[in-house]
From TrEMBL:
Keyword Oxidoreductase appears in the UniProt entry: yes
Record has Oxidoreductase as a keyword: yes
Protein name per UniProt: Uncharacterized protein
Source species: Rhizobium leguminosarum bv. trifolii
PANTHER family (alphabetical): NAD(P)-LINKED OXIDOREDUCTASE SUPERFAMILY PROTEIN, NADH-SPECIFIC METHYLGLYOXAL REDUCTASE-RELATED
Gene Ontology cellular component list: cytosol
Molecular-function GO terms, alphabetical: oxidoreductase activity
Keywords from the UniProt entry: Oxidoreductase
Length: 349
């Protein structure tokens, strides 16, 4: 297991982050009913195996199974007698947590109420990484940032991050934080997979410029890239993706990617899912990849990705089949930028 610097901080986290969206026993018919099905005993085993494999980073959210994910995670760490300093806990705020108008969003009121509830469920006195889960189109960004800065000052939160925001909005928040002297976002949690590389257009360049860490969610595109779906799939395609078709993916492109990943998987004697994860892990701008599981055997398959080293030929094939279509202004930047570097105009023999 490798450990990477979290954003522009001195904190190091494992390249694999255990995602706990599957923790809880949500009501059938709800969105979480199609995702969560892990009770306390199973949560204990999954957390234990993850930590034994070198994982020190665990991600959850208050909205996952309406707080059950946080509760099961906190109890698992207590049951396993894990020293608090040995695990980096990340959670998120924004989602609907009640039927009242202020039980959602990134307002100061909802943030202050939610952090106390999350701390209680997690059975801890601080959250290592507290993230805004979505874009709040109502609350001014400065209100959100001031509330988060207060939490950092009080020691309830050590670092802050953001999820599912546009590049321009993150940049604006960073500018406001610098101007006001607030704690700044250190991480971006975003969807990224071999079948969905849109992040590379604007968000990745911005992150590299601002030294933000990237936490990747759904690297298997909700299981679509696991090898269980599409032409040539050995099984019947059962699983979460069969009942919950998310995130949106161009299926034709996904099947083309899976076909090449099958070749690479056979070459290395691993699963298609392992190749999909290893491809994301190989990207230099990725800090950590969030993996989830309902069973220990699923977890072991995902953890195997850290041992797979894709060679240059593998990466070339995978990059080519998953390449983004040219989009303005990207294709113009590439054209006009050619010849700008000194090496491009050195005398030729």
């Amino acid at each position: 297991m490798r450990y990477n610097q979290l954003g522009n901080t001195g904190l190091f986290v494992s390249e694999i982050c255990l995602g706990t969206m599957t923790f809880g026993e949500a009501k059938q018919g709800s969105m979480w009913g199609a995702i969560a099905d892990v009770d306390q005993n199973a949560a204990d085993r999954i957390v234990e195996r993850s930590l034994a494999s070198g994982v020190n980073f665990i991600d959850t959210a208050d909205v996952y199974s309406s707080g059950e994910s946080e509760r099961l995670l906190g109890q698992a760490l207590k049951n396993l007698d894990i020293p608090r300093k040995d695990v980096v806990i990340a959670t998120k705020v924004y989602g609907v947590m009640g039927d009242k108008p202020n039980d959602r969003g990134a307002s100061r009121g909802h943030i202050m109420d939610s952090v106390e509830a999350s701390l209680k469920r997690l059975q801890t006195d601080h959250i290592d990484l507290y993230q805004i889960h979505a874009t709040d189109t109502v609350t001014p960004i400065e209100e959100t940032l001031r509330a988060l800065d207060d939490l950092v000052s009080r020691g309830l939160v050590r670092y802050i991050g953001v999820s599912n925001w546009q590049a321009w909005r993150i940049s604006k928040a960073l500018g406001l934080s610098e101007r006001r002297g607030f704690a700044r976002f250190e991480t971006v949690q975003a969807y990224y997979s071999i079948a969905g590389r849109d992040l590379e257009r604007d968000i990745v360049p911005m992150m590299q410029e601002e030294k933000l860490g990237l936490m990747v969610w759904s690297p298997l595109a909700g299981g679509l890239l696991s090898g269980k779906y599409g032409p040539g799939a050995p099984g019947n395609g059962e699983g979460r993706r069969a009942s919950f078709d998310f995130p949106p993916v161009d299926k034709d492109k996904a099947w083309a990617c899976v076909a090449v990943m099958r070749e690479v998987a056979e070459k290395h004697g691993v699963s298609v899912a392992t190749v999909a994860l290893a491809y994301i892990l190989a990207k230099p701008f990725v800090t950590t990849v969030i993996i989830g599981a309902k069973r220990v055997d699923q977890l072991d398959q995902n953890l195997a990705a850290v041992k797979l080293k894709l060679d240059g030929d593998d990466m070339k094939k995978l990059d080519e089949v998953s390449a983004l279509a040219p989009e303005y202004p990207g294709w113009m930047l590439a054209r006009q930028g050619a010849g700008r570097r000194p090496a491009d105009f050195e005398p030729k023999d």
